[in-house]
Amino acid sequence: MTPDRDAPSTPERPDIEVLRPDPLPQRLLVRWRRAGRAEGRDAEWHPARAAILAAIVVALAWWLPGAAVFLGILVALILVHEFGHLVVARRCGMAPTEYFLGFGPTVWSRTSRRGLRYGIKVVVLGGYVKVPGMGPSEEVEASLEPFTYRAASRPRRLAVILAGVAVNFAVALALFWSYAMWSPQIDVGPTRAATGSVSLMWEVSHDTVTSLGELVAGAADYSKSVADGEVPEQRMVSAVGGAQLTDGLLDQHPSRLLLLAGLFSTSIAVFNLLPLLPLDGGHAALIVAEGAIARVRRRPRYRLDPNRFRVAAAAVVVVLLALGATSMYIDVLHPLSAVG
Description:
Layout (H helix, E strand, L loop, with lengths): L25 H15 L3 E2 L1 H17 L1 H27 L6 E14 L5 E14 L23 H29 L7 H28 L1 H9 L11 H11 L5 H18 L7 H18 L12 H24 L7
Antiparallel strand pairs: 1-2, 2-3
């Protein structure tokens, strides 16, 4: 019996079309694509939260014009930092599930055809990439287990952790080189510009490490000095201070903003290298310690669970928040100014 030519043909299923080659299994990509399309139609959007975020940005720009520019620089540096984690995680065979700018309640989000949830959250002073299996005890779907963080080798996990820092250093180097090439006050060739950029980045990194080390080691004395109305010699620059510095450069040559962005990028990289959880440096130190213990105990599959250090990580967050609050207090009372 021949089929009726007038009968409606069954439409092709768009969720099983051939995808480009990928290290992940085809069936997994098909499922991710189907899920992405299903959730993509129901993208999460909260107008009230978006209005609050927009109002904050407008208020900052009205209070200090440089605040909006500083926020734009900060957002860009955070995005490239997290994008470094995302790209390297995928190249190492992991399956990231979230890529967000900010923390707290979600303002807007959407799921890609590969199952990656991306979006913006209310507090845009940070960001994160979520990779399943960051802890040995985390529950993960069985089919995704081979593509988790914990299933990867130590070198690959270390590469993912340090990818964001590497991107920030690369961006800083490019910004310093651009500043050296385009600044009207400096006339150098490409070779000298590159050499000067490396020297400047090294100097900024050294100064940042020294400053952060003194502040973290003497957090109590730092807070006491602030309470007594003193301005410490080595002071952290808060978001308010960064906005003040940016505002002071708006009337100068645009190349000065490249220099400032390079300084911020280097500081973000160095700050994240501190061997303290939940920073990247803390996770890197954990991987190195895990490898050393595994070698001593002759247990190649030995794993250290980051959740075991949750209390210490929470204490670090509290200390950093306290330092940030006191730094913001100093920057409000004693505004920073850019040197012309």
